[in-house]
Amino acid sequence: MNLALFMGKLTKFVLSFILILLYAMDLHAQINECNVFIQNNYVEVGVNWNGAYGSSATPPSGYHPDTLSSFYSCSVTSTSFNPLGVIATGSALGFVADVDKDGWATGTPPYYGDYILPGSHQEGWSFMADGTQINEWNYLAADSSVLEGGMVPYDIEYMSGPTGDTSKWEGEYNDQFYIVQFTVLDTSKLFFTVYMSIVNTSLSPSNNVYYMRTIKSNNDALLSGGGYTTRNKIDEQLPNTYNATVVSSASTLYPEAYVALGTNNLQASSFIIKNGVAPFYNTIDNISAGIDTNYLYTLNDSLTNTGGIGIIFNLGTLPGSLGEDDFSFVYAFTPQALNQALGMPDSTNSNVGVKNVIATNYTLFPNPVKSAFTVSGMENGSSISMYDALGRMVTQKVSKTGLNTFTTDNLSTGFYILMVKDADGNIQWKTPLEKQ
Q1: Cα 123 from Cα 58, distance rounded (Å)
Q2: Are 112 and 255 in contact (CB under 8 A)?
Q3: Which of 92, 194, 244, 262 has CB atoms 3.0–4.6 Å from 55's, for a disulfide?
Q4: Are residues 294 and 380 both part of a single domain?
Q5: pLDDT tens-place string over residues 69-113
Q6: Residue 39 near residue 59, CB atoms below 8 Å
Q7: The domain spanning residue 209 has which CATH number?
Q8: Residue 238 lies in a domain
Q9: Can you tell me whether residue 291 is helix, strand or coil?
Q10: If DSSP states are collapsed to H, E and C, what string results for 209-227?
Q11: Is residue 351 a part of any domain in this protein?
């Protein structure tokens, strides 16, 4: 990506951040030392400066952090990210969840987590293209002033509004891949959704492209009698009716201390690591193919150990000249929340929950958008609304069945949330959108 575009995006970020900081009416999300912290009524998340979950900085007051031995200090200027050096012991945040929805100070325990940071913590993502893999894990961001493989982060934002918090992370790898991550946390949900976009900015196609998300979950490590062993299970593996891929990690002592990775994407597969908290280097393609013997791949496979779990997206070939692949996944903190997030019905799998909800099949393209975008999967009588960074509705339209196109010429550049409701006013889908 050229320097002018790089500088322009950073300048846009700084201006957007200042506007949100000054004018947001419902300010939950905040930035500290290049880390973003978002929260809703029941879940809190720390996003590191490399896009992994599990911060390397102290969250603002009102959060419920864990203690981490050391973390990296970083600041953002109008031109660059500036890592400043390792600083003293402090409190950091991965995930915490009030699964009983009874308040952060009520119950025994009052909440679960931190799910990530105690002990040998690991959460993060890996990317492989043309046989080369990079790993962007939370503890790597906490121990270094540069990211692995020449990954360059250049934009980090947040939006806080009446419907929840959203963070945005952008980076560029090898002067070829533009990677965007939105983390969307609805106000009253026990899950959050991660929307990914990977763009090949070179002129040549890239083959054998993979994206992997992994977590070593320490669900009950901070609780009385707890530890670092979890019961890991592959709950859903393709093919199945709901196109669901799910792998979960549950406490062996506290039944409600549960976290799952899930998606409805047809390119996905899940796995359990037999030995180790994270996959080894240059193994994504072998894990995706199911031939690495250090992993379990089969539906209902389970293992009680101190290892990690993960999901891989096999993206295939990304064409040159802005070839793009968009996909999403969720982190859920109860089986019921998982079902709600993925549109799952009652299931016979022991780690998949009991709530039946309507599945969603919406797609948005293009995103980012310049003058118009199209939403597919709409039903007659549904409505679609857009909210700006201050949580204000800027446009609303009643849809027709099928494809619906919307113009954005009258909207300012920036970050918006798109929301679809059915004819009865029930929220069916919500996704971030960027106007360029």
Answers
A1: 17
A2: no
A3: 92
A4: no
A5: 455 555 544 345 555 554 445 688 999 999 999 999 998 889 998
A6: no
A7: 2.70.98
A8: yes
A9: coil
A10: EEEEEEEECCCCCCCCCCC
A11: no
